[in-house]
Specification:
- This protein is elongated.
- With 161 residues, it is of the alpha+beta class.
- The model has no long low-confidence stretch (mean pLDDT 91).
- Helix 1 packs antiparallel against helix 2.
- Helices cover 31% and strands 28% of the residues.
- It folds into 2 domains: 100 residues, PH-domain like (Roll), CATH 2.30.29; 43 residues, no CATH class.
- The strands form 2 sheets. It has a 4-stranded antiparallel sheet with strand order 1-2-3-4, with helices on one face. A 4-stranded mixed sheet has the order 5-7-8-6, covered by helices on one side.
- Strand 2 and strand 3 form a beta hairpin.
- It comes from Mycolicibacter sinensis (strain JDM601) (Mycobacterium sinense).
Length: 161
């Protein structure tokens, strides 16, 4: 696992890409909630221009929702290897022993008592299924990755093909 970004020197093929955006209905809910808070601030601080709390809370809402949806799941193939990227972390496919889908019904068990504390977990509550990637790397103490994704079968196909 490394913190460096994709190597832009070598030609690469993106085999799978998914952005873990928040659900669409969070946007109007966030704007309504923050609009109410901005209205309360406007009522309490009459010395401020009336539009200022709304502009500030609008910017906070947009920034927060974009930040929550910042994680991207990628399977990238270069001329010499294929890698799984989740956010800033990446993993060569050569160290993957096996991978499987964790359906939404088994998600609480996978994240509960069965979870190894050394596992690498990228969980987004608004994304139903997950992918379990078991590692076979003697240099890495991480036993497996548990990753939220909306289309686990596509991730598994991109890792295997």
């Amino acid at each position: 696992m490394s913190g460096s970004r994709l190597n832009h020197q070598a030609p690469q093929t993106v085999r799978y890409r998914e952005q873990l955006w928040v659900p669409w209905w969070w946007w109007p809910l966030g704007f309504v909630g923050n609009g109410l808070m901005a209205y309360e601030v406007r009522l309490g601080l009459r010395s401020l221009p009336g539009w200022l709390p709304f502009a500030v809370f609008f910017a906070i809402t947009v920034a927060a929702l974009l930040w929550l949806g910042r994680i991207q799941v990628l399977v990238v193939e270069t001329s010499d290897q294929r890698e799984l990227w989740v956010g800033e972390a990446h993993l060569p496919v050569s160290v993957i022993a096996r991978a499987a889908e964790v359906p939404q019904s088994a998600k609480s068990a996978a994240l509960g008592r069965q979870l190894d504390p050394a596992a690498y977990v990228v969980h987004r509550g608004w994304v139903g299924p997950m992918v379990l990637v078991v590692l076979d790397d003697p240099d890495d103490p991480t036993p497996y990755w548990l990753i939220s994704c909306r289309h686990p079968q596509r991730v598994l196909e991109a890792l295997q093909s």
